Amino acid sequence: MAEQEKITVVIVDDIDESREIILRMLQFEPAIEVIGSARSGRQALELAEQLKPDVMVMDINMPDMDGITATEAIRKKVPFIQVVILSVQNDPNYMRRAMLAGARDFLSKPPLIDELTTAVRRAGDLALEEKSKFVVASFNINGAPGAMPLGMVLPNPPSGKIIVVYSPKGGVGTTTVATNLATLLKTEQNKVALVDANLLFGDVAVFFNEHARNSFLELLEHSHELDPEIIEDVMAVNQKTGIHIMTAPKQPEFGDSGKGQSISRILTYMRQLYNFIVVDSSTYLTEVVQTCLDIADLIILVTTQDIPAIKNAHQFLSLADASGIERERILFVMNRYDRRVAITPEKVGATLKQPVRVSIPFEDRIISNAVNRGVPFILENKNLLASKAMVTLADQVKESVTLVKEEIAS
Predict the structure, then answer these.
(1) Region 3-133: CATH code
(2) Which residues have CB under 8 Å from 139's CB, separation 6+?
(3) What is the pTM of this model?
């Protein structure tokens, strides 16, 4: 690697010995050059603006500003900088928070030397790639075209939104909702991924008549070494819609214990590649499902007019309140709505204190035929009442994901 292509690194840790250990680990890697160190999150933010390194290796626990807060601030100030977080606490919640703040990787402390150097090289390659995007055309003082100074970076493009379609009651049509929603969200401007997170009985591939070579399960094994090629290798691209589909395993996966961290890494990384990531989840609150719900920008909670489905939705909303899932992140949908049934969306919304935002009419024969042919019903007849309701749902999703963070912050 040429001298000017070296990956520049700043080490951030409030403990002198820890900074020295990290420095020794990195100093023998010819592609990496440590150009500074900081004792606190505030110092790290100052050095980020002054030195503009490619990578910052940062401890999560510091006295004045923790590593997660510092990461978020650094990524706003100098977006191409990639952050590798170190923590003595191997806690999935810390990892999720770090990734949501913009960290590129999360390693247990102390890291193995190979693990650290690999993470820094991956982060550095991404930083160099992103840095090249910020050198944009501008005009100098004489009006001649020139390059924008490196310090004058453009903001990051909006990160992809994770939409989880969930119901605590089976058989209510979550996969139908997820597949048709993904189809509507896919446009020339929006790149959409559809993830089948039902590792036991996932049916997304069947709904599109797809036969993928790899599945979500294969990607779990590479969650520490993600790059666009690895993601692409697992995806099946549906020719009718252009949606990238991450299918469930061909053989049912009976246990998902210990997979939460890997799922979080994968979905968080996919934010960089897709405008929307629609996740079709299973009914039971397994570790995988809980992880998806935790990191979702929006949860589409699906019910029907059946009393058991409404009862389960009520229980889930109570669990959501207890676990800190904000009601603003939940978009309540009634599927298979039949006007002849006395249980109306308005009554359900009032009883559960969560308004039903969209009601999708019951058109079982037409929708069943579309499923059997492996074609989303929205493609076959856009004049169906169910199709019009799905269009409304897609519009609600686009509106909600732009407002949710503002409402929660306020």
Answers:
(1) 3.40.50.2300
(2) 145, 146
(3) 0.63
